[in-house]
């Protein structure tokens, strides 16, 4: 048994001429980088020297300026105040440190800084320090430490459950626990160099911009909806007015002796087809004639003569007010027994762009 323990100790000593090798502080670390550690924990039975338990896992994080490999017997240190936080010098273990060979101090987080724990363990002769968390956490903090002079020691921070597991091994007086610490990997936090104030400023600016944009879009679509609704309403009213006016426009049936057929004859300016007997034509107030089936859809949509652009609403006594500002309001009033007089205020700008001031046109009924 003693031969196996001696072999383990000699293995750690052989790595350096110093029985307590100094931790390397040359690893290029910044506030946003860290180095992880492998913890190889082996438990021996004191009576037989048989390995009871061994495990190796990447379950630690080196402290700043205290990165380096180390190995030795693990001791759960106790201060003069009887606490196991390693805050009160001098420190010693449940099992006294071996006279020959390195040893590693196991301490619990809390009551003092990481720097105090590491300094106390170094002064007591430890070659490395393992600090385990005093609270449950899914991530490990990086210990903020300063280089030790004249001898630097390795310092590793690990999880609460891992530290308590090693402490239970040490509480078993029939066992001896040996630990080997090795460097696992060097890591860098993504986006670690981004200033938090800058991120906050950009985030707030983005949110404000999004709120302003959303408010503008809501206002825009509300106005657009009102515009489309008013335009549709105006179109319906104008169409109804055109139907009333259309009912006043006379029609006639073409006969064989009508001037539209006699001689070269005339043709409809809409469909460019000559007139034929029995066809129905509509005679507009401007005296232009068209096929009824051709001109009626045109008049309902445009309300003007296809040739001379005469406005049938004006001619048949429809009163309107015009303005170039907009066309969003239409009112209907009864003025005669035969007609509805439509007031489509601000609605004729697209029909009469030359009109710059309010105009009132009052017409009479057709002959």
TrEMBL record:
Residues 268-309 form the RING-type domain. Keywords: Membrane, Metal-binding, Signal, Transmembrane, Transmembrane helix, Zinc, Zinc-finger. Gene3D superfamilies: 3.50.30.30, Zinc/RING finger domain, C3HC4 (zinc finger). One of its GO terms (cellular component) is membrane. Pfam families: PA, zf-RING_2. It comes from the Eukaryota. InterPro entries: PA_dom_sf, PA_domain, Znf_RING, Znf_RING/FYVE/PHD. CDD domains: RING-H2_RNF130-like. GO terms for molecular function: zinc ion binding. Residues 1-24 form the signal peptide. It is found in: Membrane. It is a single-pass membrane protein. The chain crosses the membrane at residues 199-222. PANTHER family: E3 UBIQUITIN-PROTEIN LIGASE ATL42, RING-TYPE DOMAIN-CONTAINING PROTEIN. This is RING-type domain-containing protein. It comes from Acyrthosiphon pisum.
